[in-house]
Amino acid sequence: MPKMQVRTRNRSVPLEAAMEAIASPRRRQILRLVWAAERSAGEIATTVSDVSWPAVSQNLRVLRHAGLITERRQGTHRYYKADRRALGPLEVILRQMWTRDLDRLRELAEDEARSRRARHD
Amino acid sequence: MIEDLAGAIEITQRIEAPPDIVFAYLVDSRRFVQWMGVGAELDARPGGRYRIDIDGQHIVSGEYQVVEPPRRLVMTWGWEGHPTVPPGSTTVEITLTPERGATVLRLRHLGLPDEGERRQHSEGWTLYMSQLAGAQTLPSPRRGGREEP
């Protein structure tokens, strides 16, 4: 496995977690919901009404662990918003793009190196 | 000690191939399109320009600043028509370091817009994110709908 290191300006971010989090259309939908404004868990559940609350809750947990959203508790209520200061989607997009593409470059270059070695043997 | 990488991304990747092969994949159009985009015009010499058709919809273009085969490549980088990252606005630096028959590739994407600037374009970013990440299922933004606070 290639070793990947990623840093953003504020802290190290687990690459796998961020990429996995944003790979899901459902989680991107939730991320977009909480992008411009904080939303309560109820609002999110109402908007994303075609799946069960446990599924939404699980997606919120994944996004939170990836550092993409923050959670605020007030009494029995929970509120979520995108953590753009810690990890803006720009970094996520670019990191995802470069990581995916460089991984492909690695495979291609390694194939070509193998062919070259085979020719020289 | 964490290096100051304000507005930057750094990715390091070890490749089991010598630097000259890896470098060819960075500057040769035919090899390049095998790992990035669907089309590429690359004029890899200092001052030369490049243009990459990412997905038939988004174009990345820029100018080569440093071309030192097979060790180092520096170029400006931006999406054509993008509000905060147009061509010329950011810089990508790729260095290749040989290591016992393999290559350590380090990519740094520098000069990304700061948070304040990005905040003004948050909707643009969100849309762009959804497009680039292939979120065809993402609903289009509503105005005054139930998504508004």
Helix content of chain B: 10-25%
Shape type of chain B: globular
**How far apart lie the N and C ends of chain A?**
26 Å
What is the CATH fold-level name of chain A?
Arc Repressor Mutant, subunit A
State the largest interface: A-B, 48 and 54 residues
Quaternary state, please?
heterodimer
Strand content of chain A: 5-15%
Report the order of strands and helices of chain A.
Answer: HHEHHEEH
Residue share in helices of chain A? Answer: 55-70%
**Which strand order spans the largest sheet of chain B, edge to edge or round the barrel?**
1-7-6-5-4-3-2
The largest sheet of chain B, given as strand count, sense and whether it forms a barrel, is: 7 strands, antiparallel
The radius of gyration over CA of chain B amounts to: 18 Å
Q: How many distinct beta strands of chain B?
A: 7
CATH class of chain B: Alpha Beta
What does this structure look like?
- The complex is a heterodimer of chains A (121) and B (149).
- Chain A has a single domain (15-120), classed as Arc Repressor Mutant, subunit A.
- In chain A, 58% of the residues lie in helices and 12% in strands.
- Chain A has five helices and three strands.
- In chain A, strands 1-3-2 form a three-stranded antiparallel β-sheet.
- In chain A, α1 (15-23) runs antiparallel to α4 (53-65) and α2 packs across α4.
- Chain A starts with 14 loop residues before the first helix and ends with a helix.
- The relative contact order of chain A is 0.16.
- Chain B has 149 residues and is an alpha+beta fold.
- Chain B has one domain (18-132): Alpha-D-Glucose-1,6-Bisphosphate, Chain A, domain 4 (2-Layer Sandwich).
- Chain B is built from four helices and seven strands, in the order βααββββββαα.
- Chain B has helices at 19-27, 29-32, 115-120, 122-132, and strands at 9-15, 39-42, 49-53, 59-68, 72-79, 90-99, 102-110.
- A seven-stranded antiparallel β-sheet of chain B has the order 1-7-6-5-4-3-2.
- At the A-B interface, α2 and α5 of A face β1, α1, β7, α3 and α4 of B.
